[in-house]
Amino acid sequence: MLYLLFPTTNFMKYFSAKSLLFSILIFTVIxxxxxxxxxxxxxxxxxxxxxxxxxxxxxxPQLSDYNFFEGAIKNMDPVFGVLxxxxxxxxxxxxxxxxxxxxxxxxxxxxxxxxxxxLDFPTGTVLIKSxxxxxxxxxxxxxxxxxxxxxxxxxxxxxxxxxxxxxxxxAVLDMSGQNIPISWNENGETRNVNxxxxxxxxxxxxxxxxxxxxxxxxxxxxxxIEFSYDDVEQxxxxxxIDAGYLTNFPENLEETIKWDDAxxxxxxxxxxxxxxxxxxxxxxxxxxxxxxxxxxLDELDLYNxxxxxEPISHFDGGPFVINAGNADASEMYLRMSxxxxxxxxxxxxxxxxxxxxxxLIKNWINAMESNCE
Length: 373
Fold this sequence. Notes:
9 helices; two-stranded antiparallel sheet; six-stranded antiparallel sheet; 16 strands
């Protein structure tokens, strides 16, 4: 009688081949011979990610060319080596839901470079983000609008946006930019947006520092949360280490407060919201570098965040960027509350006001002690 010992599919799904080279179980034959000897059988099979990525020829014409997903592509079921993740606080994009994945080449891993800095990803890394809506009218179906890739070449990150067809069985490379009207039902209410798929130039506006493209979301503090992997909860940073995708991260690393966590204080939530939605432009080297405010989470001087700071241009009479104690007279709140093209903030990435996020900023400002003169 023969018994083969081998890892299950679920166990192996999120572990890299690099890790398995050191941990794969040797298939063993248990013989019923008279001496009860154990005869080891060599096994050549090692799980290798089936992802296809040639840095000389990317971006490919279709999303399916990368082989990121198995089965029906619309299900976004990742192949071995493609790791799902989410952010503690996510950037607002017209109420679209998002599914995120990352992939790294074999025998490579990211390095920790500070809690506030993007992980130092190796060449060949791909960040995958799909934008979709549920209960899309008239059929009340789930619909993926686009999938954005950021691919790290040797000297730069490049963008690749893939627009999904109506049949939801293919997504084609399109960097020209376009608007997609979407209507969906949410909690019994019909909502409408004119969703914007960005052009290559528009991607660069937000994803640049000193005119060099870079990712926004995957900062260690924003990844330092639990995620369900095959119904097993695990810290995402530890999962990256287990998968061979991260070398280390410090103990007691803080995590970003979720902006919609009602149990947390207004300031922690508001600062997390501004960090992911606004800091990439309002930072040194960012698109809005010329504006004095700095909205990254590690900025401790509230004047630099905008409290009692005079704006470089006034909109609707706000005397300060943040008029402590009075949101209705604060440039930040007023600009976030409008869709006027010449006044709205952020300047792109949304076609509607994020009502819940703007309400948080209003509550935060109104809760401040009035001390601006």
